[in-house]
Write a structure and sequence with these properties.
- The protein has about 375 residues and is of the alpha/beta class.
- It has two domains: about 10-180, 3-Layer(aba) Sandwich (Rossmann fold), CATH 3.40.50.1970; about 185-384, Up-down Bundle (Dehydroquinate synthase-like, alpha domain).
- The protein is about 50% helix and about 10% strand.
- It has 13 helices and eight strands.
- The protein has helices at about 20-25, 40-50, 70-80, 90-105, 185-200, 210-230, 235-255, 260-270, 275-295, 305-315, 320-335, 350-360, 375-384, and strands spanning about 10-15, 30-35, 55-60, 85-90, 130-135, 145-150, 155-160, 170-175.
- Strands 1-8-5-4-2-3 form a six-stranded parallel β-sheet, sandwiched between helices. The chain has a two-stranded antiparallel sheet with strand order 6-7.
- It is globular, with a radius of gyration of 20 Å.
Length: about 375
């Protein structure tokens, strides 16, 4: 058995740990660019902490999911301000934006030269400036991944900028920052986290370390997601979701994803739908189609045992069958009021283009089975 494993240089996880940030970044630099979303309440708290400890800082706000132009502007601002630390504080989109900016400050040329699928896929050769990732949602795990998902309006697709050097120098996870998340964001990001635990567990890139992480994370989400959604002030549920999200990021960075994420890039480029909402809608459907293929084509595959194990973890029933796990996923999506993709504007007219783009997505290589055109069409049709 051969595998590699890497994660952020340092991970700090504790309620209230935002206040300790300066003790962890003393040797990073003295001028920070804070990459954040539209709300400045939490970023302002961060800025006050930095100012108190002699670290100068300014803001770069990212509206929605980052595109090529937003990254370009962020890089130019960081260079103009002579920033020597980038701190991303927000959801997965913000963290990805900060990650990309930190990497491109030290690597010259147009961003498209480094992007997968639509660009040249040129490798990042110079180490990024120190990057600190502070998530305020429990979902993407971007604080411990080596890629940044960037949208391209020109190509109607989201693709990755990717390098092992893009792993953050510090991932600081403070569950208190998720306590005020609205129910819809809790649902979408939480099911994204679950997807990022299930897909690596089923992928051909799994290894003993990621398997252990995935098992633990799946169990935590099964026990906590409904409570976090319905009782947002349940601090134990919030903490479990934040930890499971971290586990999902570590797993996907060291194994592979699957068809849910293979579809999510093209769908995200086409629809005005959050990434987590797309993953949430697709997860039970992709699981069902994958299971059907395994049962019909590969009935003796050892992957079927993993479907059974997932079902046991989700339902907390040691003898659960794969179908019971999928039924649980459908149930939780209904309980959390996950929208259909049709509600975001997907139509059958879009299917062929989506399938064409999804077929070449890097995540599709991690799916436990190869999907034919008709099977991919079925997934999209059921997600309507």
């Amino acid at each position: 058995m051969n595998f590699e494993f890497a994660t952020a240089s340092k991970i700090v996880f504790a309620p209230g740990c935002l206040t300790t940030i300066t003790s962890h970044i003393q040797d990073f630099g003295n001028k920070a660019l804070i990459v954040c979303g539209s709300r400045l309440d939490t970023p302002n708290i961060l800025k006050d902490i930095l100012d108190t400890h002699g670290i100068e800082s300014g803001f770069y706000q990212v509206s929605g999911e980052p595109d090529v132009e937003a990254i370009h502007h962020g890089v130019n601002l960081a260079r103009a301000e002579k920033s020597n630390i980038i701190i991303g504080i927000g959801g997965g989109s913000v963290l990805d934006a900060g990650k990309a900016i930190a990497a491109l400050i030290t690597n010259s040329g147009d961003i498209l030269e480094y992007m997968e699928v639509i660009g040249k896929g040129k490798p990042i050769t110079n180490p990024p400036i120190p990057y600190v990732a502070i998530p305020t949602t429990a979902g993407t795990g971007s604080e411990v991944t080596r890629n940044a998902v960037i949208s391209s309006p020109e190509y109607d697709v989201k693709v990755s900028l990717r390098s092992p050097m893009m792993l953050p120098r510090l991932a600081l996870i403070d569950p208190e920052l998720t306590y005020t998340l609205p129910p819809e964001i809790t649902a979408n990001t939480g099911l994204d986290a679950l997807t990022q635990l299930i897909e690596p567990f089923l992928s051909p890139g799994s290894n003993p370390i990621t398997d252990a992480i995935c098992r633990s994370g799946i169990k935590m989400i099964a026990e906590s997601i409904v409570q976090a959604y319905e009782m947002g002030n349940d601090f134990n549920a919030r903490e479990q979701m934040a930890l499971a999200s971290l586990f999902g990021g570590i797993a996907l960075a060291n194994a592979k994803l699957g068809a849910v994420h293979g579809f999510s890039g093209p769908l995200g480029g086409l629809l005005s739908a959050p990434h987590g909402a797309i993953c949430a809608r697709l997860l039970p459907i992709v699981m069902q189609v994958n299971l059907n293929i395994l049962l019909s084509r590969y009935p003796s595959s050892s992957i079927l045992e993993r479907f059974e194990e997932i079902a046991s973890l989700l339902t907390r029933n040691p003898s659960a069958k794969p179908e019971e796990g999928i039924n649980w996923l459908h149930w939780v999506c209904q309980r959390l009021k996950i929208k259909s993709l049709g509600e975001y504007g997907l139509t059958p007219h879009d299917f062929s283009v989506i399938i064409e783009k999804a077929s070449v997505a890097s995540s599709m290589k991690g799916n436990p089975v190869t999907l034919e055109f008709d099977e991919m069409y079925e997934i999209l049709n059921l997600a309507m």
